[in-house]
Amino acid sequence: MNWAFLQGLLSGVNKYSTAFGRVWLSIVFLFRVMVFVVAAEKVWGDEQKDFKCNTAQPGCHNVCYDHFFPVSHVRLWALQLIFVTCPSLLVVMHVSYREEREKKNQLKHGEGCRRLYKDTGKKRGGLWWTYVLTLVFKMVVDAVFVYLLYYIYEGYDFPSLVKCTQVPCPNTVDCFISRPTEKRIFTLFMVVTSLVCILLTFFEIVYLVGKRCRECFSSLGHSRHLVPVHTSLINGKDGLSVVETRSAKLSNHDNNRGKAPPYSDVQFASTLCKEFERNGGL
């Protein structure tokens, strides 16, 4: 397995991940890939050679070993790491597809044209769905492999002595597993790290879905707040009353323009004085 290629691939995905995704990536490299490369292969490297049975019957040793170890732990974990990490390639491919579309759009309409994406690496639209589906796939794969490990080996324990009755063994044969305590410790460690990765992936899915729902509800509430105000200014009672009042003021102003002013008190006093003088005064 080319671990350098895997590291470069996941490092490219890291810049598109959330905080949970970055923690998940750190755990995968430090506690799964590194432990797998440094220790796991050495622990299980001699499992078949040091698997001893107290019989010299030809074929009994191989049959008993295949019965208790149908799949190698090392190969099972390698397959699990491949299935867990490779879906991240879909995110990188989707971002590359967006960048290629953006380049073609700029070549076609010029540099100052309207962009297709505000940020090609931002998780919106199809990229959001791609990212969430890869998270679901990784969580399901980890859970399936944890169950397979439990189902195939009937638990995570390694007894020192196992009894084999498979053909062509002549009778019940005692077989001995090499370094069972060491194998048990590393198996439990890999299982616990897989469960932690499942938990982190679940939290990341909840975070992304919750964030999207919050954005949808906030935009919906903002639109509902703007629409009544706009309609009230145009079709509402308050809007009609304002328009009618303004129209009435303008019409009264136009009607009064050009007409004589009303009969004032000064004119009334002047008329009384003229009548008094006409009658001879005091």
Description of the molecule:
This protein has about 280 residues and is mainly α. It has helices at about 5-15, 20-45, 60-70, 75-85, 90-110, 125-155, 180-235, 235-255, 265-280, and strands at about 50-55, 160-165, 175. It has a three-stranded antiparallel beta sheet, with helices on one face. Strand 2 (about 160-165) and strand 3 (about 175) form a beta hairpin. Helix 1 packs across helix 5 (about 90-110), helix 2 (about 20-45) runs antiparallel to helix 4 and helix 4 runs antiparallel to helix 6 (about 125-155). The longest helix is centred in the last third of the chain and has 55 residues, at about 180-235. The chain is elongated, with a radius of gyration of 42 Å. The model is unreliable at about 235-245 and about 255-265 (pLDDT under 50).
